[in-house]
Amino acid sequence: MVRRLEKVIFALFAIAIxxxxxxxxxxxxxxxxxxxxxxxxxxxxxxxxYKLLIHCTGSGSPTIILExxxxxxxxxxxxxxxxxxxxxxxxxxxxxxxxxxxxGPMPRTSAEIAKExxxxxxxxxxxxxxxxxxxxxxxxxxxxFNGNYPHEVSALVLVDSTQEDQYxxxxxxxxRISASQLQRYRSQAKWASLxxxxxxxxxxxxxxxxxTPDAYLILQPKYLQARASELQWIKTxxxxxxxxGNISNKPLIVxxxxxxxxxxxxxxxxxxxxxxxHRLWVNDLQVRLVHLSSRGKQMVLADSGHDIPSERxxxxxxAVKTLxxxxxxx
Length: 330
Hints:
It is a single chain. By secondary structure, the protein is an alpha/beta fold. The mean pLDDT is 87. The relative contact order is 0.14. The chain contains 14 helices and eight strands. It has a domain of 229 residues: Alpha/Beta hydrolase fold, catalytic domain (Rossmann fold, 3-Layer(aba) Sandwich), CATH 3.40.50. The chain starts with a helix and ends with a helix.
């Protein structure tokens, strides 16, 4: 009886090992195949022991730098960059841990990200002045960059960017939703090596018919860990953006989403919570961003939700073109 039980346990153990090996090989082979079929454009640049992927197109000065939101890769700008490249030099990139970039030091705060971006631009040979474009969380990063290297920045575009006072002013339900999202991100990061490394996440996406050609870029433990860290330390990043101060008299355009965001509406907020949030976001928090510069302007996009780079890329392109023209003829 004991020997039979030992054989069963050994057999189950052997099956688990074989399944794990099969999952690992499946994930590895399919990741390499996806990378060949849908390569991410750009070049890897060493910034001091690890490399970041940067993709620059077009020509001219100033150079436009595109900084994506939390969880978003450089492909967030796929509808923006080709249009901007028609009249300016423009660069998008993957932050450390994201997409084709190597993992970077923890924690992932705006101060660390701004330092890495500066090293990346220097080592890639992309010379200032820069017009910085930051979407959502990316707004903190470009503000910190401007605070650290003010003489290298000529103008900014903040695309429905986060604002540091929001954590004290948003409806109380928002804090609960944010905490739930952080818990989910941290859990995914904790189990990433098992969940992603053994192909489980890929199989789930395949079963749901949600496996896109570029999914391999986010089916990586380093991505899940970097994303979780950015969210966990987002209030520290908010403090760093606040400490960076205003941007004096530099041209600034604030693009604000004026349409209900489906993601927010589906997040558990009541209609009243959402109305309170939307009113505060459009008429208060975004206006505070405008006041960072004596030359700040706000454009409310009534037909766009939070994902302006995808829903209204033309608005981002027009804002960049306006500021690029102003800084050229300053």
